[in-house]
Design a protein that fits this description.
By secondary structure, the protein is mainly α. It has 37 helices and no strands. Among the domains are: 127 residues, Alpha Horseshoe (Serine Threonine Protein Phosphatase 5, Tetratricopeptide repeat), CATH 1.25.40; 135 residues, Alpha Horseshoe (Leucine-rich Repeat Variant), CATH 1.25.10; 129 residues. The chain is 75% helix and 0% strand.
C-alpha cells in the first residue's frame, strides 16, 4: 500500500520501539504469573535489562541523534530510579504501578494540551491561515506524538499550501497510529493526484472502500476525478506532440484566438472569427488546443463580453452571442474538463439564466443545447448545480408556451435535473412565488400551449412531490387544485392525444398531492371525485386507471364525496373493473370500495346487489396481493352488516378462505385482522357457518378473532 514510511531509519526505530513495548508487557505478565518458576525467570530477566539499561544510559545520552520533533517517540523511557536489583517482586510491581500512574497522568495532561493546540490549529485553518494551522498542529504533536488527528489535520493544511510530499508523509504517520484511518487515505490520494501519481491515488481510494464499503459513492467520485485528471494530462501531452509535429489545427486555433483577443475591431470581425474557431475546435485534439491556448479567456474582449451580457441586443450582437454559444458547444461536447473550465469563467454561470429568458429564439435554442451537454450526464449536472438554479424551474417551464423544439429541450433538461436533491432544494425557495403562478396559468391555458411539453412539465412537478416540503406547498395551493380541475373539464373522449396526455399527467400529479392531508384537499374532495367519476367512462384505459387511483386517495378526506360517488354509481363501476382483472386498476378499485362501504350503508347494499353471492370479493380473497386481500376482507366484513348477506354465502368457500387469511402469516396485520372480523361477523349473522368452521377446526381462530370484534 502507499502508506510505506519514506525514512527507513525512522521506520526501524519505530518498529524497535514497538518490540520493546511487547517485551515489557511480557515481563509484567511473567511477574504476575502464579507459576513461581515463570515469576523467578521474569525477575531475573528484568534485573538483567535494568543493569544493561543503567550501563548504557550515559552513552545513549551522548550519542542520541536529533530527529524531527513531530515524529512518534521511538525511545523507551527508563524505569524509575527507585527500581533496583535488590527489590522483591512485590516491591518491583508496586514501583511499576506507581510509574504507570505517573505516565498516565502525564499523558492525560499532554492530551489536554494537544487537544487545545488542535482546536487552535482548526480555527486558523478555518480562517485560511494554513501556515499558522501547521504550526499549531506541530506543537500539538510535540505534546502527543501518536495523535492521529493532528497528522491528518496538518496534512490537510499542507495540501492547501501545495506541499504534497509533506502531506503524504503526515498521512503515512497517521496510518501508523490508525491503520484504518479513512481521512489519511483520502488526503494521501488527493496529494498523489496533485503530483500526478495516478496509480497511487487510485490505490488510496480503493483502500478506503476496503475499510468502509459504505463510502462507495465518495470513492467512486474520487476515482472519477483521478480518471479525468489522467485523461486531461494524456490529451494535453498528445496535443503538445501534434503541435510540435506541425499540426495545422494547432496553429489555426492559436492564430484565431490572437485575432479575436485584439481590441478595437467591429462586431462582424469577431463574429466571423468565432465562427471559424468553432469549426476548428470540434475534434478532441482541437478542444485540447483550445483549452491549452486559454481559449475561454475570449470573454476578456469587451465587445464579446458586452454581447453576452447585454440586457437588449442589436441583430449584430445577437449573431455574435449565438456564435459564442456555438463555439462553447463545440469546445465542450464530450469534454468534461472544458465543461468545468467554462462554468468557472466569470459571468458564464449567472448569465445562462439570463440567456434562457432573453426572449430571442436563436439565443435560447443555443443556450438550451449548451446546457443539455451538462444535464445529460452525472458529472455535468454536478457542475451545473454549483450555480444558482433557483429560477431555472420557472424559466424552463415557461418554454411550454413555445411551439418549436425549445419546449422539448427545456423539458429534457428539467427531467435530467429533477432527480438531484440540490435542485429540489433550490426549487423550494421559488415554488410559491414564481413557479405556482406560472404553472396554474399553463394549466388554465392548456388548449393554447405545447400540450406534449405541458404533460412532461406536469410529470416533472409530480417528481418534485417526492420532496415532502414541495409536495406540501403544492397540496395547500387552492389555485393549483382549481387549475387541475379546469384542465380535467376540457377532456371529452374526442380530445386530441396530446390533451389526453395532459389529463393523464395531471391525474398523476393529483395522486402524488393526495399523499398529503389538509383542509384544502377536504374542500376540493367533492369536485375532484366528481371529475374522476366522469372520467371512469373514458376510452383511454390509462386515464381510467389513474382516475380510479385519485378516487381511492381523495374519498377518505370527505364523507360527502363518498355519498356523491355512491349516488353516481361508483360501486357498480368498481365491480366492473375488478371483474376485468387489471392488477393496478383492481388495487385502486377494491380500496375505493372499502372506503365507500366503510361509511355508506347504500354502498354496502349496492355491493350485495351487484356482486351476487360475493363472487368478486371471494375471488379477491384468494389473491396473492396482501393489500387487495386486506381490502376485500374489509369490504366483506362491512357488507355482512346487511341483512341476508351472510346467508347468501352459505355453500361457498368463504369460511375456508377467511380462515386461511386470518390464521396466515401475512406481513400486513390488516389481512389477519380484517379476515378475522369478517369471519366473526359471518358466524354471528348466520350461525349455520359454524358447522363448516368446526369441520375445518377453525374454532380457535374464531375465538382469537373476538379481540378484533370487541374493538369494532
Amino acid at each position: 500500500p502507499p502508506a510505506m514510511l519514506r525514512d527507513e531509519a525512522t521506520e526501524a526505530d519505530f518498529q524497535r520501539f514497538l518490540r520493546q513495548v511487547d517485551d515489557v508487557t511480557n515481563l509484567l505478565q511473567g511477574l504476575n504469573s502464579p507459576d513461581s518458576a515463570v515469576q523467578e525467570k521474569a525477575i531475573a530477566e528484568t534485573e538483567k535489562r535494568l543493569r544493561e539499561q543503567g550501563g548504557s544510559r550515559e552513552e545513549e545520552e551522548e550519542s542520541r541523534t536529533t530527529v524531527n520533533r513531530t515524529l512518534i517517540n521511538t525511545s523507551v523511557r527508563a524505569f524509575p530510579s527507585g527500581i533496583n536489583a535488590g527489590l522483591t517482586s512485590d516491591g518491583f510491581l508496586a514501583a511499576l504501578e506507581k510509574d504507570a500512574k505517573e505516565r498516565a497522568q502525564r499523558r492525560r495532561r499532554n492530551e489536554q494540551l494537544a487537544n487545545a493546540l488542535k482546536e487552535q490549529g482548526n480555527e486558523a485553518f478555518r480562517e485560511g491561515d494554513f501556515a499558522l494551522a501547521i504550526q499549531r498542529y506541530s506543537e500539538g504533536l510535540e505534546k502527543l506524538r501518536d495523535k492521529q488527528e493532528l497528522y491528518t489535520n496538518r496534512a490537510q493544511a499542507y495540501l492547501k499550501l501545495c506541499e504534497y510530499e509533506k502531506a503524504i508523509s503526515d498521512c503515512e504517520w497517521a496510518l501508523k497510529c490508525n491503520k484504518n484511518c479513512l481521512k489519511a487515505y483520502f488526503l494521501m490520494g488527493k496529494a498523489h493526484l496533485a503530483l500526478q501519481h495516478f496509480t497511487e491515488a487510485r490505490q488510496c481510494y480503493e483502500k478506503m472502500l476496503q475499510i468502509d464499503p459504505q463510502k462507495e459513492k465518495l470513492v467512486k467520485d474520487c476515482v472519477s476525478e483521478a480518471r479525468l485528471e489522467e485523461k486531461r494530462l494524456r490529451e494535453e501531452e498528445r496535443a503538445e506532440r501534434e503541435a510540435q509535429a506541425g499540426n495545422v489545427a494547432a496553429s489555426s486555433i492559436q492564430e484565431l484566438l490572437q485575432r479575436i483577443s485584439s481590441p478595437g475591431q467591429g462586431i462582424l470581425y469577431y463574429t466571423g472569427g468565432i465562427r471559424l474557431l468553432a469549426e476548428v475546435v470540434s475534434s478532441c485534439t482541437g478542444q485540447t488546443f483550445f483549452r491549452t491556448n486559454n481559449g475561454f479567456s475570449i470573454l476578456r474582449n469587451e465587445t464579446v463580453r458586452g454581447a453576452l451580457c447585454a440586457e437588449s441586443r442589436s441583430p449584430a450582437e445577437v449573431e455574435l452571442c449565438v456564435s459564442l454559444l456555438l463555439l462553447w458547444r463545440a469546445a465542450c461536447a464530450g469534454n468534461e474538463e472544458n465543461q468545468r473550465l467554462l462554468l468557472a469563467q466569470p459571468h458564464v454561470g449567472a448569465q445562462l439564466a439570463e440567456l434562457l429568458s432573453s426572449g430571442t429564439p436563436q439565443i435560447q435554442r443555443e443556450t438550451l443545447a449548451l446546457i443539455s451537454l451538462y444535464s445529460d450526464n452525472e458529472r455535468g449536472r454536478r457542475l451545473l448545480l454549483r450555480q444558482d438554479l433557483s429560477r431555472w424551474l420557472q424559466i424552463l417551464l415557461a418554454f411550454v408556451k413555445s411551439t418549436d423544439a425549445r419546449a422539448d429541450s427545456a423539458m429534457n433538461i428539467l427531467s435530467d435535473l429533477m432527480g438531484e436533491e440540490r435542485f429540489q432544494a433550490q426549487c423550494r425557495a421559488m415554488l410559491s412565488t414564481g413557479v405556482l403562478p406560472l404553472f396554474t396559468q399553463l394549466l388554465v391555458c392548456a388548449g393554447q400551449v405545447n400540450q406534449a411539453a405541458l404533460a412532461r412539465g406536469m410529470g416533472v412537478l409530480g417528481s418534485l412531490c417526492a420532496d415532502v416540503g414541495l409536495r406540501a406547498q403544492l397540496a395547500q395551493s387552492r389555485e393549483c387544485w382549481q387549475a387541475c380541475l379546469q384542465l380535467l373539464d376540457g377532456c371529452p373522449d374526442g380530445s386530441s392525444p396530446e390533451y389526453q396526455q395532459c389529463v393523464f399527467a395531471v391525474l398523476g400529479l393529483m395522486m402524488n398531492l393526495l399523499l398529503e392531508s389538509n383542509g384544502t384537499i377536504q374542500d376540493f374532495a367533492v369536485p375532484i371525485s366528481g371529475r374522476c367519476l366522469a372520467l371512469l367512462n373514458h376510452q383511454d384505459g390509462r386515464i381510467v386507471t389513474r382516475a380510479t387511483g385519485v378516487l381511492s386517495r381523495v374519498l377518505p378526506a370527505s364523507p360527502s364525496a363518498v355519498e356523491e360517488v355512491v349516488k353516481g354509481g361508483v360501486v357498480k363501476k368498481m365491480l366492473k373493473f375488478l371483474k376485468a382483472g387489471g392488477h393496478l386498476t383492481s388495487s385502486y378499485a377494491i380500496r375505493t370500495l372499502s372506503i365507500c362501504t366503510k361509511s355508506s350503508s347504500r354502498a354496502q347494499e349496492e355491493l350485495l346487489k351487484w356482486d351476487k353471492r360475493f363472487q368478486v370479493l371471494l375471488k379477491l380473497l384468494d389473491s396473492g396481493d396482501e393489500l387487495v386481500v386486506g381490502n376485500a376482507a374489509f369490504c366483506l366484513s362491512q357488507c355482512l352488516l346487511q341483512p341476508g348477506a351472510a346467508s347468501a354465502l352459505l355453500g361457498s368457500a368463504v369460511v375456508q378462505l377467511l380462515l386461511r387469511q386470518a390464521g396466515g402469516d401475512a406481513r400486513r396485520t390488516s389481512v389477519q385482522q380484517n379476515s378475522a372480523i369478517a369471519l366473526g361477523r359471518l358466524c354471528v349473522a348466520e350461525p349455520r357457518h359454524i358447522h363448516q368452521l368446526r369441520k375445518l377446526n377453525g374454532l380457535a381462530i374464531l375465538n382469537s378473532s373476538m379481540k378484533y370484534l370487541h374493538s369494532t
